Amino acid sequence: MKVTVSRKAHFNAAHRLYNNEWTDGRNASVFGKCANPNYHGHNYELIVSVKGPIHPETGFVMDMKVLKDLIRDEVEEKFDHKNLNEEVSEFKTLNPTAENISVVIWNKLRPKIEKQLELTITLYETPRNFVTYTGE
Ligand code: NI
User: Fold this and answer.
1) Which terminus of the chain is more solvent-facing, meaning fewer CB atoms within 10 Å of its CB: N or C?
2) How many whole angstroms separate alpha carbon 109 and alpha carbon 59?
3) In CATH, what number is assigned to the domain containing residue 66?
4) Stated pTM of the model
5) How many domains would you assign to the chain?
6) What is the pLDDT of residues 16-47, one digit of tens each?
């Protein structure tokens, strides 16, 4: 028997999507407003889900206080109110799309969560657009 527990978090961050090897025109046509050279912000909503067996002594899959602190230290403090392109080292050469941000977050959290627990990252860039990464 496995149960999924989830914690929601939030951060505001600025980004710009572009490919250095493309013309401004191609960047504008592929990335639209997200290619704006002066950056723009999103209110990102993050859901971190952890799936595994219920521990018989605690009744928990994972202590949510531990998960909360992990998200604060690894994601919120590093991303909140930052310009992702300029201030977060992972995005110096990686386009900060929701897809890539979710992979970066998964990679930060994975080593800090017990091996037998499955980790899923869901990241909303807008209320209607969201991505999911499970490490596959
Ligand atoms: Ni954008």
Assistant:
1) C
2) 22
3) 3.30.479.10
4) 0.94
5) 1
6) 999 989 999 999 999 998 898 899 999 999 99
Compute the distance between CA of residue 103 and CA of residue 79 in angstroms, rounded to an integer: 14
Query: In angstroms, what is the span from residue 5 Cα to ligand 1's centroid?
Result: 29
Distance of alpha carbon 103 from alpha carbon 120, whole angstroms: 10
**How does pLDDT run across 115-132, given as a tens digit for each residue?**
999 999 999 999 999 999
The number of helices, as runs of H, and strands, as runs of E, in the chain is: 5, 5
Active site residues: 34, 81, 125
H or E stretch covering 123 = strand 118-124
**Nearest to 11, CA basis, from 53, 34, 42:** 42
* 34 CA distance to ligand 1 middle (Å): 4
Amino acid making up residue 134: T
Distance 118 CA to ligand 1 centre (A): 29
What's the domain range around 30?
3-133
